[in-house]
């Protein structure tokens, strides 16, 4: 890998250690990460915090320990979502995160701060933002080709794909945090043969989709597009997203206006917002487009973005069936692949979304679309792994799956690793199909 | 027209009169209407009110005049949106509206109440709800056929259309109230010939779409569908909706996931929520489906809904160009048609939307889709009136239009009329293209 051109700061220093003992060497949340989230303690209080090792630092409680500028920002975390805090913009959130870093790395301040730590496993985590609008993109080109081949064998990738960052609006109301059970949706299903009557009942082709969530921080006014060169500072951070999909409902309803009930019954996000600052060491060049692909239009093209706008993040999906859990088996890995499967950078998605004047707001969620790698072990959905349900996959215990069964749990993880830097984890995005 | 089977109540009594002089005979807001909205006075205060003639009754100020149950509800209108009030459910809102009706029809109470009236034209009106999710349906079958013929000449109405109430998610953030200027969107446009490069620039095929807005009152929990027989009580009321559309952007981006930037730059709603109670005298049977059309599936079929679930509301669209305004000309009527152009009832849209467990919330907006009648003078968009831009329409002053020019103002109105009842108006939904 070539060296990144993205600037790093002192919070990326791999030699930094925290007086929070569980933080050093923590696979997800060392002091170099410090992701933001919303947590609830057993007394029912809900507010913003920062993950550090196995603990959460309460931000509102720490106001007096963070210095003047950061204190004003930490007060905004005394809320049920992070919207007010992140609406202040990337520079403000950087300042707050840096103040938290200083507090948690200064052993002399352990006494005054440790009372504001909560054991993470004793807290309930919430969706970090109140999502005004959820947009789902389709930036995983290998996924687009794979799915396109199943729906339109003669025409997998439509002529617009390499010009337009394809996206559509999803449902805000049904976004739930990791750990929330998913109820299998009922609906109309594609007729067995063309011209026949649709079926009706619980989906028999329930699937997951491995995506990353890109959170909007500072928004833009209606009618004022975000230029590509400024798009980065509107991105608050990322989480993991499972965009559950009912393939039989989707196949019947999606023309001509796109997916609707096949998707809007539930979407699951991981609870921690990992900032672009924490990910700075893992910024890499956007993979070169294959020979013959068109150049992005000028409003999508920025040299710095092309050189540092992709993220070297690895994503994994695991399945744990009820039988596996009953037998004490470990979850089985279904796939592993890189976030660089995105045909467009996050900044390109933001610039495209607003080029028509559409206003983004703090807390808006942009899904990347399913991120399937070009390799067999990197397929980000069962639809792809089972070849449209035609070829069941076999699990280590002999069970088979084409689509999800009741009791199945899907666990997604993601992390960034690089020699000379601390590993940064995204945590988990997990949910079980009820039944 | 056959007699309606929908129950009416004392607020529909056509002989009722109000001590608010401008109300009696008012074309939109007689005392039989009493729609709810959010208004702002010149001192910057924003709260909920009820339109009566040329005035607005301030609900929070009237708390002591409305009786105990209604008082508690009126307090919920001391807010920047009607979400909290309408989340209490249809029966609660009915009780409040009836209390307002009693107050405004009892001449003896003029003295204590008239101080809480504001001149409507001195107030600024707002979008009545904070819209959590905006869903746009496609229930106007004549529109679907007309548009389908332009995009897919060989296949205008897809096989799912008469089975599935087709819908998709729209953008919440860019919904604006009547009177807000619309900025022409920029974006990628369909290549002149297949396989060519897309164009880029301001839309040259900017259009309006005549729709009605169906507002959700009481919502449902995630995973708990709303049965068709109960769907009616989840409907708070209706307004007029203009779903602005950039046809050149839409034609290029919409496959395979539906419209996105072609629609999400702006949607305009009228400010007053006309309740289903006010519209009770205008409930009519859903038009019979043509011979050979499939019967709706059981989850969409309810006898009472079929008998009284459609609304006898007339909608009109007017155009006023800059040249017309400069010359003092009246706006020119582009179309007039009935809301019964809906292939599905509002209750069917609600039942379908939630059949998969998707949760609706108070303030959610359901667009009907463009409502074009089966007659030439009832086409609800310029795309239809100009035959896809191929046949310009000529205005009385000699100007021609295929799509909207800068400075054009689109004015939509809607109303219900029936012998023996007061006319109920929806007010106006108007906006001008900037430039």
UniProtKB/TrEMBL annotation, chains A, B:
It comes from the Bacteria. Keywords: Calcium, Hydrolase, Magnesium, Metal-binding, Phenylalanine catabolism, Tyrosine catabolism. NCBIfam families: fum_ac_acetase (TIGR01266). The active site is at 143 (proton acceptor). InterPro entries: Fumarylacetoacetase (IPR005959), Fumarylacetoacetase-like_C (IPR011234), Fumarylacetoacetase_C_sf (IPR036663), Fumarylacetoacetase_N (IPR015377), Fumarylacetoacetase_N_sf (IPR036462). PANTHER family: FUMARYLACETOACETASE. Residues 32-128 form the Fumarylacetoacetase N-terminal domain. Its cofactor is Mg(2+); Ca(2+). GO terms for biological process: homogentisate catabolic process; L-phenylalanine catabolic process; L-tyrosine catabolic process. The lineage of its organism: Bacteria, Pseudomonadati, Pseudomonadota, Alphaproteobacteria, Sphingomonadales. Pfam families: FAA_hydrolase, FAA_hydrolase_N. This is fumarylacetoacetase. Substrate binds at residues 138, 152, 250, 254, 370. The keyword Nucleotidyltransferase does not apply. GO terms for molecular function: fumarylacetoacetase activity; metal ion binding. Its EC number is 3.7.1.2.
């Amino acid at each position: 890998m070539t060296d990144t051109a993205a600037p790093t700061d002192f919070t990326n220093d791999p030699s930094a250690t925290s007086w929070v003992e569980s933080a050093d060497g923590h696979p997800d949340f060392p002091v170099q990460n410090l992701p933001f989230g919303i947590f609830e303690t057993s007394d029912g209080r809900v507010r913003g915090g920062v993950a550090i090792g196995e603990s959460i630092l309460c931000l509102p409680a720490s106001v007096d320990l963070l210095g003047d500028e950061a204190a004003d920002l930490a007060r905004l975390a005394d809320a049920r979502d992070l919207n007010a805090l992140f609406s202040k913009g990337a520079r403000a959130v950087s300042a707050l995160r840096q103040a938290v870093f200083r507090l948690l790395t200064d052993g002399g301040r352990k006494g005054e701060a440790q009372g504001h730590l909560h054991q993470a496993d004793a807290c309930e985590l919430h969706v970090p933002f109140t999502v005004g609008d959820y947009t789902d993109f389709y930036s995983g080109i290998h996924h687009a080709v794979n799915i396109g081949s199943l729906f339109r064998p003669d025409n997998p990738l439509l002529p617009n794909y390499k010009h337009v960052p394809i996206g559509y609006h999803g449902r805000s109301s049904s976004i739930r945090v990791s750990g929330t059970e998913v109820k299998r949706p009922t609906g109309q299903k594609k007729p067995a043969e063309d011209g026949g009557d649709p079926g009706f009942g619980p989906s028999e082709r329930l699937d997951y989709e491995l995506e990353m969530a890109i959170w909007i921080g500072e928004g833009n006014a209606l009618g004022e597009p975000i230029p590509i060169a400024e798009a980065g500072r509107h991105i608050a951070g990322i989480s993991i997203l499972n965009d559950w999909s009912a393939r039989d409902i989707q196949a019947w309803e999606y023309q001509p206006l796109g997916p609707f009930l096949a998707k809007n019954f539930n979407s699951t996000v991981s609870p921690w917002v990992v900032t672009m600052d924490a990910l700075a060491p893992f910024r890499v060049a956007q993979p070169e487009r294959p020979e013959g692909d068109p150049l992005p239009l000028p409003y999508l093209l920025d040299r710095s973005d092309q050189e540092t706008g992709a993220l070297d993040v690895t994503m994994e999906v695991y399945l744990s069936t009820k039988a596996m859990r009953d037998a004490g088996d470990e979850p089985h890995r279904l796939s592993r692949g890189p976030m660089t499967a995105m045909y467009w950078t996050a900044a390109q998605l933001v610039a495209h979304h607003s080029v028509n004047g559409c206003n983004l707001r703090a807390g808006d969620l942009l899904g990347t679309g399913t991120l399937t790698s070009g390799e067999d072990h990197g397929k980000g959905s069962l639809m792809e792994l089972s070849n449209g349900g035609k070829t069941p996959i076999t699990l280590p215990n002999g069970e088979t799956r084409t689509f999800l069964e009741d009791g199945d749990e899907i666990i997604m993880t993601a992390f960034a690793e690089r020699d000379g830097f601390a590993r940064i984890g995204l945590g988990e995005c997990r949910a079980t199909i009820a039944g």
